[in-house]
Amino acid sequence: MTDSDSDADTILCPSANCRDGALLVGIVMPDGRVAFTSERIVVDEEFVQIARRGASPEKRFRFGSTCVEGACAQWTGERCGVIDEVLQTVNPRGAPGELPDCSIRPQCRWFHQSGAAACVACPEVITDARMSVE
Ligand code: SF4
User: Ligand 1: residues whose CB is within 6 Å?
Assistant: First the structure.
């Protein structure tokens, strides 16, 4: 775990990889939507090891971790390109204006960029959306 992940001033990526120190943001439900947690849950190495035994943890959970800005391929130079694309392509199934009870909102990169619209679309986002034969 890095100090910056737990620092309240740190901006977090809400679609990060599973790793020791990441925050567990939500769980992918059978209908493909993410159920969020209002509790701040830090993932430890044991969780990571167990989660990696099954299908990709990034298909089954959502994690938050420090936004690394220019060190990420999704950074456009001044913002995260992922949520911009999500807002253009995803049709949220939730009720309009219904925001998930999410533990990372004050620090979330997507919320900082796009406000409530990001939170309405966010449950539709699965970090590892690749097709697989697992
Ligand atoms: S976009 Fe909203 S719901 Fe999604 S992780 Fe960020 S604050 Fe939480």
Answer: 14, 25, 36, 100, 102, 104-105, 108, 110-111, 118-119, 122
- For the purposes of burial, counting CB atoms within 10 Å of the CB of 60, is it exposed (0-12), middle (13-18) or buried (19 or more)? middle
pTM over 0.70: yes
pLDDT, tens only, 69-120: 999 999 999 999 999 999 999 988 988 778 999 999 999 999 999 999 999 9
Token pair in block for residue 71: 């060190």
CA of 125 from ligand 1 middle (Å) equals 10
Measured in degrees and rounded to the nearest 5, phi and psi for residue 61 equal: -140, 165
Encode pLDDT of 7-60 as tens digits: 778 999 999 999 999 999 999 999 999 999 999 999 999 999 999 998 999 999
For atom 1 of ligand 1, the residue with the nearest CA is: 119
CA–CA gap between residue 101 and residue 123 (Å, rounded): 11
Tokens linked to 46: 């044991």
Distance, in Å, from the CA atom of 34 to the CA atom of 104, rounded to the nearest integer, reads 14
